[in-house]
């Protein structure tokens, strides 16, 4: 038997890494509620716009002129019915990415380094962990409070601000490089008031506070209406057209924050990461906000119906932290209409 030839070795962090994985294949035609996919598809305007792309444009590299301005106009109009807009944004404060996953990956490449710390909650979106691990970062994951998965605000505050209580380095303690908050949280549905997030960011200027708002349209908890990126340049907000606008298969994500931070995160991406079909679809989806609003309203009605249907029966809505069907990442915790966490941060 011929001897195996040596191969180049990856970085130690990559060799030890367990890649993030999801059940990707063999599930079309099913209602994949564990993916939280849009169940009705995108706006007819999106379909028409994609069909209208001339064939000769397939061979042309994508162009992004006007897309940042289209998002700003959409946000200024209030986005979804449950959301409020974002005042005073300029195009330099908008980063464009091949889905929010790519934005998360870029954030860790731009700001995460070996030996530094990611502060987050547990359980939360599973992609944060491998992104931190591939950079050699330590991970401090604060568990949600049982039995109702309440946000661990005081625990996060102590871990963020350290022994001196003001975020300054002290002896061996260094402030976390990144604080990642998924709001509302995937998979628990936990909500944190935007005022509390802004207080955390203001108290820890050395930490990049990233707010993953992929599901914000369903709760109306965005920090954007209150954010002042000049006062808190360490705040970065992630948005997507995957869930509400039905563009998960095309991949379109945004990072919104201080222009300098957006610039640094964008430096570690490729020049043409977002394809022309996604760009065309994004323009059309942002131009048809009433369609997205109607879908969000339908999801909220379905949520209320599901909770009302399950409540009289033997199903407990406050589920213990255990995997459903033996698969990591599949849970049955409906977002509750109960008040979000509003305890003072101090």
Record keyword descriptors for this entry.
346 residues; alpha/beta; Aspartate Aminotransferase, domain 2; seven-stranded mixed sheet; 10 helices; 7 strands
Give a topology summary:
Blueprint: H1 12-16, H2 44-51, H3 67-76, E1 94-97, H4 100-111, E2 117-122, H5 128-134, E3 138-143, H6 153-161, E4 178-182, H7 194-203, E5 208-212, E6 235-240, E7 253-257, H8 259-267, H9 276-287, H10 289-310
Parallel strand pairs: 2-3, 2-4, 4-5, 5-6
Antiparallel strand pairs: 1-7, 6-7
Task: Report on this structure.
The chain has helices at 12-16, 44-51, 67-76, 100-111, 128-134, 153-161, 194-203, 259-267, 276-287, 289-310, and strands at 94-97, 117-122, 138-143, 178-182, 208-212, 235-240, 253-257. It has 10 helices and 7 strands. The longest helix has 22 residues, at 289-310. It has a single domain (38-310), classed as 3-Layer(aba) Sandwich (Aspartate Aminotransferase, domain 2), CATH 3.40.640. It has a 7-stranded mixed β-sheet with strand order 1-7-6-5-4-2-3, with helices on both faces. The chain starts with 11 loop residues before the first helix and ends in a 36-residue tail after the last helix. It has 346 residues and is of the alpha/beta class. α2 (44-51) packs antiparallel against α9 (276-287). It is globular, with a radius of gyration of 21 Å.
């Amino acid at each position: 038997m011929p001897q195996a030839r040596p191969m180049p070795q990856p970085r130690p962090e990559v060799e030890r890494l367990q890649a993030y994985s999801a059940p990707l294949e063999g599930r079309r035609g099913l209602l994949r509620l564990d993916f939280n996919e849009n169940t009705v598809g995108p706006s007819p305007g999106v379909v028409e716009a994609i069909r209208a792309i001339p064939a000769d444009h397939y061979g042309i590299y994508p162009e992004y002129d006007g897309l940042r301005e289209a998002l700003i106009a959409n946000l200024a109009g209030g986005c979804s019915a449950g959301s409020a807009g974002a005042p005073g944004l300029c195009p330099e404060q908008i980063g464009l990415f091949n889905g929010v996953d790519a934005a998360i990956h870029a954030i860790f490449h731009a700001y995460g380094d070996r030996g530094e710390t990611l502060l987050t909650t547990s359980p939360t979106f599973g992609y944060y962990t491998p992104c931190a691990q591939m950079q050699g970062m330590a991970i401090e994951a604060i568990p949600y409070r049982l039995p109702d998965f309440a946000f661990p605000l005081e625990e996060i505050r102590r871990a963020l601000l350290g022994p001196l209580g003001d975020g300054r380095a002290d002896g061996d303690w260094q402030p976390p490089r990144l604080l990642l908050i998924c709001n509302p949280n995937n998979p628990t549905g936990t909500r944190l008031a935007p005022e509390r997030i802004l207080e955390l960011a203001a108290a820890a200027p050395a930490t990049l506070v990233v707010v993953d708002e992929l599901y914000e349209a369903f709760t109306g908890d965005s920090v954007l209406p209150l954010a002042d990126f000049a006062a808190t340049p360490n705040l970065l907000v992630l948005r997507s057209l995957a869930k509400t606008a039905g563009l998960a298969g095309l991949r379109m994500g945004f990072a919104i924050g201080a222009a300098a931070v957006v610039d640094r995160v964008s430096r570690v991406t490729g020049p043409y990461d977002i394809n022309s079909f996604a760009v065309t679809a994004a323009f059309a989806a942002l131009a048809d906000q009433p369609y997205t609003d109607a879908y969000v309203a339908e999801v909220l009605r379905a949520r209320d119906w599901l909770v009302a249907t399950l409540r009289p029966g033997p199903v407990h809505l406050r589920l213990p932290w255990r995997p459903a069907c033996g698969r990591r990442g599949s849970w049955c915790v409906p977002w509750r209409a109960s008040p979000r966490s509003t305890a003072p941060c101090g």
